[in-house]
Amino acid sequence: MRTISPLSLISAVAALVTLLMVLSPSQALASPVSSVKRATSSNYWLANVKRQGSVAFGSDSSYAVYRNVMDYGAKGDGSTDDTAAINAAISAGSRCGWGCDSSTVKPALVYFPPGTYMISQPIVMLYYTQLVGDALNLPVLKATAGFQGMAVLDSDPYDSSGANMFTNQNNFFRQVRNFKIDLTGMPQTAGAGIHWQVAQATSLQNIVFNMIPGSASKQVGIFMDNGSGGFMSDLVFNGGNYGAFLGNQQFTSRNWTFNNCNTAIFMNWNWAWTMKSVSINNCGVGLDMSNGGSTNILIGSVVLMDSKLTNTPIGVKTSFTSNSAPATAGTLIIDNVDFSGSTTAVAAADGSSILAGGKVVASWGEGRQYSGTSGSRVQGSLAAPSKPAALLDGSGKFFERSKPQYENMPASAFISVKSFGAKGDGVTDDTTAIQKAMAGVNSNQILYFDHGAYVVSKTISVPNNIKMTGEIWPLIMATGSFFSDPSNPQPVFDIGKAGQSGAVEITDLMFETKGPAPGAIMLKWNMASAQGASGIWDAHVRIGGSAGTGLQSDKCSKDPSSTAVRTGCEGAYMLFWAGTQSSGVYLENTWFWVADHELDLADHNQIDIYNGRGVYIESQGPVWLYGTSSEHNIFYNYEIRNAKNVFMGMIQSETPYFQSNPKAPAPFVPQRPSDPTFSICSTQNPSAPCYKSWGLRIVDSTNVFIHGLGLYSFFENYNQDCVATNNCQQNMISLEGSNSNLNMYAVTTKASVNMITLDNGIAAALDADNRNVFGATVAYYRKGGSSTRDCDDEDDEEYEDDEE
Ligand SMILES: *[C@@H]1O[C@H](CO)[C@@H](O)[C@H](O)[C@H]1NC(C)=O
Ligand SMILES: *[C@@H]1O[C@H](CO)[C@@H](O)[C@H](O)[C@H]1NC(C)=O
């Protein structure tokens, strides 16, 4: 999350203009109900498993986590107005809406059986809500002819004064999956599918938007004004003026199909957006990122990769020119995009051609590119790096796999951890029960964590072949002396063993600590896996700031005036570790969040949680990270070391708001060779804010591809004066040792004087040379060299970490 930015306020004006267009008065003509469909029961396991989840830290023992909209009166028959019933299903149990800000103790998993649900006003998604349609037979949410309001689904409503229900960049913990949203019954002058104004730990998956096609259509599939996300995948947009109208700090999207939209994607504003596997068919324009014009471009950057346009005359529209402003705004990377179906691949705002279509474009960009320490403005072809086969699928795209939903598994295949004696009550030590459960399911079964809080006091050895999922992010909470020693850290979930090969799938779980656990490695993965055999999707690590963690604002509130370290406010040792023996590592939409503010107690104050390390990768690959974020860790948010064949897109980080009080790495000391010592700070200006967390370190690694980075520093000891002057910290990205075939695209940093720092503290790219709409952006940073280096070289011994 982060606090309000001047940029998003400016861009919001543009968003609001379009918003008013969407909401302009309709000339509604009631369309007859053609067929009567009734909501039906289904074999989808999610509708049929025994429900025994409960909230461990709530006050209401009768609170229902799971709700079927039929139980609240929805009919799904294609004629009854189901709006009130669905909103009742969502809101039952005094949930978190107006004036609440946030709450983790009122989650709701709301299920929709197959059927056609008539909707006349927005369905309001309260905080911590998942809306899940039947995966076997997608329910239809059909807007009535007279629909009134912003969108069929609304993740963050506005009141009549223009105030939001939730602060957009703190609007966490949502899912919407398995729906058809149908606007075709509305007049073509109005209608939006989803108002998706969200932040981290949110996802849209497997949704079809049906809109009226044609040049007069004003309909929009997704309307996104702002936020700080986020991830979405597997979406189909049919018809409409804009398939997706987008504005957000940063986002990753994957596997989108647009058919017959006037403009498939309208980018209203952003800092960074990575789009992969986009198919655009029979549209006028594929991606319009020209907003603001060449004197005031509002788009920070877009990476468009592994995509294809068919019968779409203009691929990408841009306002970037040889002297457009801000300097690097409108940064664009095109990586492996098939424009054979476009006349013009990249067009200026007036439609004139910058890059002709009719071909596959391997690597093209606009912005500023670097090699070594020299940067230059580019609008043209980029060097096309060689991509190792291990990272690619059979068609030459970077491998991807959507979150499994197990839609073809019967409910009987889901085995509850409670059947093995786990309590999930936030108090009982469930270590033994969970370990028994892990051994007790076979490869045709799925281990199910009912909602609750499962306390573990020792490592859970996750077998090398297991699938597990949870009921709206049940908490796995590490606690106690076993996890207390930073000089002897222990994994909480130890996924497979070094030397083993297997298939592990983890979805919809949340990992936390209960009290300080400075010796806990939250997730460790050190087994081998074939491409696509394993993965972690929509599972998150959240340290402190919420009920039950004991690391809340009553104890850990910020105090910038004091140099004393708050005792008892340590988080974990490390959030994710891909070990030397790991391969086939796949993460998608995982948020590694050390809380910067309180989610449950009424003050919602900012808090100091001291957490050692974020995401550490020393795998020989392949490794794929889609839509991950790692925030507020003391040493680093991401580190890639002695690693090989790593793809990440996009990654986002934030420096702890309290630094440099204390100066990194305090209150900890380096424990292993991979811990940065911050010794380069002694070579830099002593008054520079150098002792701050690295957003990203890459050390002695080969074949690293990072498509989209947003690494931010917003504070110096909670003071934000440095945001405007872009010097909250001295360094953000460190490239050390002998990296080769390292490729970073659309590198955005905020308020770091040096964007990229080389060995011995030499700056490769400066913020001042690369100003963008809010941060600073380097379009392409490349360190070439052969990719044949063997990372198991004995020479590397001195750099290797101790393995327990
Ligand atoms: C988000 O967008 C809305 C609609 O344009 C605007 O009213 C609001 O001020 C924006 N919020 C921020 C923080 O920019
Ligand atoms: C892409 O999304 C579509 C629509 O949800 C889905 O059918 C398809 O399986 C997805 N493709 C991949 C590679 O996940």
From TrEMBL:
<dbReference type="InterPro" id="IPR011050">
    <property type="entry name" value="Pectin_lyase_fold/virulence"/>
</dbReference>
<feature type="domain" description="Rhamnogalacturonase A/B/Epimerase-like pectate lyase">
    <location>
        <begin position="66"/>
        <end position="288"/>
    </location>
</feature>
<feature type="compositionally biased region" description="Acidic residues">
    <location>
        <begin position="791"/>
        <end position="804"/>
    </location>
</feature>
<dbReference type="Pfam" id="PF12708">
    <property type="entry name" value="Pect-lyase_RHGA_epim"/>
</dbReference>
<dbReference type="InterPro" id="IPR012334">
    <property type="entry name" value="Pectin_lyas_fold"/>
</dbReference>
<dbReference type="InterPro" id="IPR039279">
    <property type="entry name" value="QRT3-like"/>
</dbReference>
<feature type="region of interest" description="Disordered">
    <location>
        <begin position="784"/>
        <end position="804"/>
    </location>
</feature>
<feature type="domain" description="Rhamnogalacturonase A/B/Epimerase-like pectate lyase">
    <location>
        <begin position="414"/>
        <end position="482"/>
    </location>
</feature>
<dbReference type="GO" id="GO:0004650">
    <property type="term" value="F:polygalacturonase activity"/>
</dbReference>
<protein>
    <recommendedName>
        <fullName>Rhamnogalacturonase A/B/Epimerase-like pectate lyase domain-containing protein</fullName>
    </recommendedName>
</protein>
<dbReference type="InterPro" id="IPR024535">
    <property type="entry name" value="RHGA/B-epi-like_pectate_lyase"/>
</dbReference>
<keyword id="KW-0732">Signal</keyword>
<feature type="signal peptide">
    <location>
        <begin position="1"/>
        <end position="30"/>
    </location>
</feature>
